[in-house]
Design a protein that fits this description.
The complex is a heterodimer of chains A (726) and B (696). Chain A is α+β, with helices and mostly antiparallel strands and 726 residues long. Chain A has helices spanning 7-31, 35-38, 65-78, 164-171, 177-205, 207-230, 285-300, 336-356, 425-431, 561-569, 575-580, 594-609, and strands at residues 43-48, 54-57, 88-91, 103-112, 115-125, 154-158, 161-162, 234-244, 252-262, 265-269, 314-317, 375-381, 387-391, 434-441, 457-463, 468-474, 496-501, 524-527, 533-538, 542-546, 624-626, 630-635, 638-643, 648-651, 661-664, 678-684, 691-698, 707-711. Chain A is globular. Chain B contains 18 helices and 33 strands. The chains are: A alpha+beta (726), B alpha+beta (696).
Chain lengths: 726, 696
């Protein structure tokens, strides 16, 4: 680009382009007829440069940002379809560029003369595109052909004319053609807004200026991220997360990430992940890219404009045929909430471990947030006698992970959704034949820690005003604690899905209000496990679900006892957990008994070690902190890792687990259900019994030494009191 | 001699406008005081002095005393609201905490949203430990599924009493479909705790959707005691000064009501100041024959925009304040953090201005109160828009400090010389304000070039020309009272009451309502009409009914007028056609999708009694030339030598050609090169500027 905007015009144009993206959101939300878009936030808008890089994005589903770019690249590189002014393209094929079939996206080129100056893109989750089961999530699918309609990259608007024949063709595949039809109009309106605004800007400032601004926005974000990466240590971080049940059997799958950060670049290697599954939980390569983006942007992109520039320092290594790089024709219908979500978890965790070692950023290290999204869809005939389909967004309301010194947000949700929203209970009851018994926070669901993970919400509901309907229920994380803690913080609770047949028969609600334990209601209660799939529900049947709380940060025994007491009085933590997990003793009036608390905490540490502790944790111990309980020191010219109480755990490197004491953790006291192939191991300071990490790993496989530091941040960037003399 | 007085209290200044029977006016700005009332008293005394009367005689001669305040808003923003408890349906006590997941990101800007450590800036208005659940349940049709457990209710009330709450908010699910449980709970609370302030949600915010309804109810509860106390104290002080009339308080819906009513429902007055300014401008515009108006108010920290379309101020039903969604029909005032105090700096190699503001303390660098960062006001001083002696309240400013701040924090980092840097600050600020003006017009399907701008606030008259140029607006109006426009509004606005009721009706694509559905709408219409008539009291009133409509499945509704008289199928059809027309003008031809059918959500009545009546102002001041000054307009390399004029309430028929500055007390009107200003019969300055219609 020879023409560049000056600093003033650049800021003006940048603001305008951000406003245009916001206008696209407003247009989409205004015209859409899907509650997932209008009342909740399962959608995306963005502006792209001609090579498919995103320059701006709305703050809804961050997973989607690079994927529309893939659609654009497919169109521009195949050369099979003429691309003309006024054209708009639609696509949802995960084997071309999509997360899964429900995420229908459209893109249009914005022409100036014969040149494309930019592309606009939009996506929304559509409740049904056909396939074996209502809602197009098909637990029984063995091939992608059995799932929803795939639209590779099809021209829906040809030089300004809507191809109504193609619209009819697409709507014919859906069980909910009216909602889908309204959303296709909304997509077109959204792209029209973008085209009109960009064309306006071009006529005022010229295409080269607009193009230069879009590219510069991307370049600046890249430069800012590279600068930030230089402030993080060079290291290899190796983390794993798991997901259970592929729709056919309760098999356990691994997403394995070896992240290497050197200088201002990162390589993410997923080669250690499981091979692709026979069922619908797989992700294709665009899904892997989306999953990475969903964690990368919030974890290290804070304070930087979010665009493709943040992806440029990242190299991804992943052979074909893994669960995150599934090959045609593997089924992928639930990719977003299964493998993509799990990819986000591992990237978030690995980056948090890196942040923890960088003094300027250590306060941003975070437990994993809302590591799953349970799905509840329902279809049938509603209370108004119309065919309906519901894709409940309430399950976004899991807990967010804790930061150092800062509790996670209750019902804060996952990292990939920067501006989440769910519908009111009353809105849901008005639009759909539902009756909620409760929508509330679940006490003790937040991962325990010095800083507590955010609580998950939970709901119980029945169908109301109709005789019955067909639900589709599925999740991962019912037997895997995906929302892991960090530095001894506990994972948040696992998902629990239950149904009580005729629990409120005749809509006879419990006179004393909904019980704390929903199975205290009458009726026949049954655990549903991770993926019951299709589930008929009759009026009076109660479906109850709670999601994952956020991961905790640091040893719960070092949480301020007064903060624990406040949690108890706010009913966020039960009295029994306050004592058993946090080691806080109360006097007769419910106030913290400091002396008894100190004694109790020591007893708990003794219980962990199986012996009396010989030292106390020392939060003020010197050295370069790696979380609250570990210190990196330089002794005799080599690195030594010690616990805060002074125990030497590693020498010549940071593989500190070798020197720590381990014990198996009983998951039941943490509200966690474990898959038969998983166990939890806690790592302790051998002197004090301070908790240093809680690992979730396969039976028979050793836990990973997650953090292998190679180089702390460059000396010239390091605060002086943190310098290690080697 | 009789007087009409309006007052408006902002964070920096307390404004007062007064007019005497003979048409003489007073425009007064004094520094706000922490107790608010002190500033009002000071302004009142100053006004009395200006009219040459002892304060007791002046106050005794006041026929109408209007008041707008941000007392409630400030209490919310600074966490000084009353200690309120909440009683709700068992199973839903965490509604505020969960906050539709939206509460955690409320109030965050573009770059803050991506920084999750910024989340949860606002705690729920009622903490979890003051929420009580009682067994009861009503469904969407209003059917009682579980009767209210009165014993549990009494226990809940007793335990809130033990927490020494000053107010109790009551919000149960579907109370808007059937208020029986909320009403009974209110009876129980009043019987047990007669001193406590009680609010029920179906009265505070008669809308479906429990989060906004509950937020509004607890905001009313938390503010009620604070606002009631404040208004009683204000009344007492004014009575002591000699006032004989009751204080009328401005509400967000663009009219005034009695102080007692605001004490009962304080969220109605949360955003009253900006609304008052919009209403005044609408009235002046109607008088001048303009029916499409953008009103801007540029103050120290915020930029507020109101819109008038076809002679009516655009309304909205909800606003987010201090993290809480508050449901109350009000004049739609869009706002961003941009004003004279906005701080300029370099971010990512580019020049950024705001949203951080230096406020009044320390204020812009040129104030010499310890501020070292450059602000938009510093830039205007350097560009020649303001002189060192042209600031409100006789403040003397330091030009050298402004120059130093701009050079240090903007000029040197970006390699720009002083004038280029100062011009850049203004250009970036103006472009942010222009973006907001675009969004309130273009996003609603209007062409900004068809609007006339009314420029208010201390800095509106000096920025209007640049905003008009960017938007292709050819005419802007500056009134002699622009700097106290909101105060004027509280003095002259009509008395206005609104009332709404949910009335859920679902229609198929053919839009034919059954007799039963029509009855639902008629009943709601009668209720809301009777409600506003009763609250307006005796005297001539007018009432307009509207219905909220959306396409089935959509979330956004539009309010369209309901015909007068008994509602029938044909009358409803007229309203639905109006909805479709409005919808297409908003979202483009073909965006409507009648095939989806319609949902009618609620019926609303707006009732009013006329305000102060004909404006009797008799402006007679000349516009006097005082000298010349160099001012930068579009090109920092080519400053213009501008004639500088001074006036107060200019007589009709005067003309000034640009480039020129007209200094009024508290405001400076900038006329760009090629622009021309004329005064109309009321002393308003109508400025026309040459514009190239924005290419779109």
């Amino acid at each position: 680009m020879n023409e560049q905007p000056g600093p003033v015009l650049y800021e003006i144009l940048r603001n305008r382009l951000v406003s245009v993206t916001e206008e696209m959101r407003i247009a989409l939300q205004s015209v859409s007829g899907s509650p997932t878009v209008t009342e909740a936030t399962d959608f995306f808008t963005g502006l792209y440069v001609p090579d498919g890089s995103f320059a701006t994005m709305g703050f809804q589903v961050a997973h989607e940002a690079p994927v529309v770019g893939g659609l654009i690249r497919h169109l521009t590189s195949s050369g099979r379809t003429p691309i003309r002014a006024g054209d708009m393209f639609i696509g949802n094929d995960p084997y071309v560029a999509a997360l899964h079939q429900n995420d229908v996206q459209m893109a249009c080129p914005i022409f100036v003369g014969d040149e494309v100056v930019a592309w606009a893109g939009v996506m929304a989750h559509e409740t049904d595109l056909g396939g074996m089961n209502f809602a197009s999530w098909c637990p029984g699918a063995t091939e992608v052909f059995q799932e929803g309609l795939r639209i590779p990259a099809v021209k829906l608007v040809d030089r300004g004319e809507v191809r109504e024949d193609v619209v009819d063709f697409i709507l014919a595949a859906s069980r909910l053609p009216t909602a889908l039809g309204l959303d296709l109009r909304a997509f077109i309106a959204t792209l029209n807004v973008a085209t009109a605004r960009i064309t306006d800007l071009v006529s005022r400032y010229g295409a080269p200026m607009i193009s230069a601004t879009l590219h510069r926005m991307i370049d600046e974000s890249e430069a800012a991220l590279r600068e930030r990466l230089r402030q993080l240590p060079d290291a290899v971080v190796h983390v794993r997360d798991f997901l259970e049940h592929d729709g056919h059997s309760n098999a356990l799958y691994t997403v394995d990430l070896a992240l290497t950060k050197r200088g201002d670049a990162i390589t993410m290697d997923f080669s250690g992940s499981s091979l692709q599954a026979p069922g619908f939980i797989n992700a294709t390569r665009p899904g892997l890219q989306g999953g990475i983006t969903g964690a990368l942007l919030p974890a290290v992109g804070f304070g930087i404009a979010w665009n493709e520039g943040l992806l440029r320092p990242i190299t991804v290594v992943a052979p074909d045929g893994l669960i995150c790089t599934a090959q045609y024709p593997a089924p992928v219908g639930s990719a977003t909430v299964e493998t993509i979500w799990t990819v986000t978890n591992v990237v978030h965790r690995a980056l948090s471990l890196l942040l923890a070692c960088s003094p300027p950023h250590a306060h941003r290290a975070q437990g994993v947030s809302s590591g799953t999204m349970a799905t509840f869809n329902m279809g049938g005939t509603n209370q108004y006698g119309e065919r309906f389909g519901l894709h409940l967004l309430d399950p976004l309301a899991g807990g967010s992970g804790a930061y150092a010194g800062r509790d996670g947000v209750n019902a804060g949700g996952p990292p990939a959704v920067p501006m989440p929203a769910i519908a009111d209970v009353e809105s849901n009851e008005q639009a759909s034949p539902l009756l909620y018994l409760y929508r509330r926070l679940r006490a003790d669901s937040g991962g325990a820690g010095a800083a507590r993970g955010g609580l998950s919400a939970e709901v119980a509901l029945t169908v109301h005003g109709i005789e019955g309907a067909e639900a589709l229920v599925m999740t991962h994380g019912a037997e895997v604690p995906n929302s892991t803690g960090i530095f001894g913080g506990r994972p948040g609770s696992t998902v629990r899905q239950r149904i009580g047949v005729q629990a409120v028969a005749g809509t006879r609600l419990p006179a004393e209000g909904p019980p704390d334990d929903v199975t205290d209601l009458p009726g026949e209660w049954r655990e549903l496990g991770p993926k019951p799939g299709s589930l008929p529900m009759r009026a009076g049947d109660v479906f109850a679900v709670r999601w994952q709380g956020g991961g905790g940060y640091g040893d719960p025994l070092s949480r301020d006892p007064d903060a624990v007491a406040a949690d108890v009085s706010d009913r966020l933590v039960s009295r029994s957990a306050a004592t058993a997990v946090y080691g806080v003793a109360f006097d007769g009036d419910g106030r913290v008994d400091d002396r008894a608390t100190r004694a109790l905490r020591r007893r708990v540490r003794a219980g962990r070690l199986g012996a009396e502790p010989t030292a106390e944790p020392r939060p003020d111990a010197t050295g370069h902190p790696i979380g609250p309980g570990l210190r990196l020191l330089a002794e005799d010219g080599e690195w030594v890792v010690r616990s805060s109480a002074g125990a030497e755990l590693a020498r010549g490197g940071t593989a500190w687990r070798a020197g720590a004491t381990s014990r198996r953790v009983d998951p039941s006291e943490l509200g966690i259900d474990l898959h038969e192939q998983l166990i939890m191991t806690e790592w302790l300071c051998p002197l004090s019994g301070e908790s240093l990490a809680v690992d979730v790993h396969r039976v028979g496989a050793a836990p990973l030494e997650e953090l292998m530091l190679e180089e702390l941040m460059p000396e010239e960037l390091m605060p002086e009191d943190m310098l290690l003399d080697l | 001699m009789r007087f009409t007085v309006g007052t408006d209290v902002g964070g920096t200044f307390t404004d007062l406008w007064a007019i005497a029977e003979d048409g003489r006016q007073a425009v007064i700005k004094v520094p706000s005081t922490a107790d608010i009332i002190g500033g009002i008293e000071a302004a009142t005394r100053e006004a009395a002095a200006l009219f040459g009367l002892p304060v007791a005689r002046f106050c005794g001669a006041i026929e109408r005393f209007g008041h707008g305040t941000t007392a409630g808003l400030n209490a919310l923003l600074t966490g000084r609201a009353a200690r309120a408890g909440l009683i709700t349906t068992a199973g839903f006590g965490d509604t505020l905490e969960i906050g539709r997941m939206k509460r955690q990101v409320a109030g965050l800007g573009e770059l803050e949203v991506g920084d999750y450590l910024q989340r949860n800036r606002w705690a729920p208005l009622v903490p979890r430990r003051l929420v009580r659940e009682v067994p009861e349940r009503i469904d969407r049709t209003g059917r009682v599924l579980l009767a209210l457990d009165e014993r549990a209710a009494e226990q809940a009330i007793a335990s809130l009493a033990a927490e020494r709450v000053q107010a109790v908010a009551i919000c149960t699910l579907w109370s808007v479909a059937n208020p029986v449980h909320e009403d009974r709970l209110a009876e129980l609370v009043r019987a047990a705790l007669p001193e406590v302030f009680v609010v029920v949600s179906h009265e505070a915010a008669a809308t479906v959707g429990e989060y906004a309804r509950m937020s509004t109810t607890v905001a009313d509860a938390a503010l009620g005691p604070v606002v009631s106390t404040y208004l009683a104290a204000l009344d007492e002080r004014l009575v002591t000064l000699g006032l004989r009339r009751p204080v009328l308080v401005m509400t967000g819906s663009g009219g005034v009501v009695g102080a007692a009513e605001v004490g009962r429902h304080p969220v109605a007055a949360l955003m009253s100041g900006p609304a008052a300014g919009v209403i005044v401008c609408r009235d002046i515009a109607t008088d001048l024959g303009y029916d499409r108006v953008l009103t801007i108010d540029v103050g120290g920290t915020s930029f507020d925009v109101g819109t008038v379309v076809d002679g009516a101020a655009v309304m909205r039903s909800q606003v987010t304040v201090a993290g809480a969604d508050v449901h109350h029909p009000a004049i739609d005032v869009a706002t961003i953090g941009a004003g004279g105090g906005s701080i300029a700096g370099v971010r990512g190699g580019a020049l950024a201005v705001g949203p951080a503001s230096a406020g009044a303390d320390p204020g812009p660098a040129c104030y010499g109160r310890g501020g070292t960062l450059p602000t938009a006001t510093d830039a205007d001083l350097v560009l020649g828009v303001f002189a060192e002696d042209s600031f409100a309240g006789g403040l003397k400013v330091d030009r050298a400090a402004a120059e130093h701040a701009i050079a240090t924090h903007v000029g040197e980092p970006l390699g720009l010389d002083l004038l280029d840097a100062a011009w850049g600050i203004r250009a970036v600020l103006d472009s942010r304000m222009a973006d907001l003006l675009r969004s309130v017009t273009i996003e609603r399907g209007h062409d900004p070039a068809e609007f006339v701008m009314f420029a208010n606030g201390g800095q509106g008259p000096s920025h209007a020309w640049a905003l008009c140029q960017q938007l292709g607006i050819a005419t802007f109006v500056v009134t002699p009272t622009a700097t106290v426009q909101s105060a004027l509004g509280t003095g002259v606005s009509e008395i206005r009451q609104t009332s709404g009721r949910p009335s859920y009706v679902r229609l198929a694509a053919d839009a034919t309502a059954t007799e039963q559905q029509l009855a639902v709408l008629r009943t709601a219409g009668t209720q809301v009409r009777d409600d506003v008539v009763a609250r307006l009291g005796d005297g001539p009133v007018s009432v307009a009914l509207s219905v909220a409509v959306r396409y089935r499945g959509q979330a956004h509704h539009l309010d369209v007028a309901l015909p007068d008289g008994p509602l029938d199928v044909a009358g409803l059809g007229t309203s639905l056609r109006a909805f479709e027309t409005d919808y297409e003008s908003l979202y483009g031809a073909g965006a409507g999708f009648g095939g989806a059918g319609f949902e009618l959500l609620s019926v609303r009545a707006i009732g009013s009694r006329p305000g102060a009546g004909e404006n009797s102002a008799r402006p007679a001041d000349p516009i006097v030339r005082e000298g010349d000054r160099e001012v930068v307009f579009d090109d920092p390399a080519v400053p213009f030598t501008c004639a500088v004029y001074r006036t107060g309430f200019p007589a009709p028929g005067q003309q000034v050609d640009g480039p020129a500055l007209i200094c009024f007390p508290g405001q400076t009107l900038v006329i760009p090169p090629g622009g021309r200003a004329r005064t109309d019969r009321r002393g308003n300055v109508v400025v026309t500027i040459p514009v190239e219609a924005e290419k779109r």
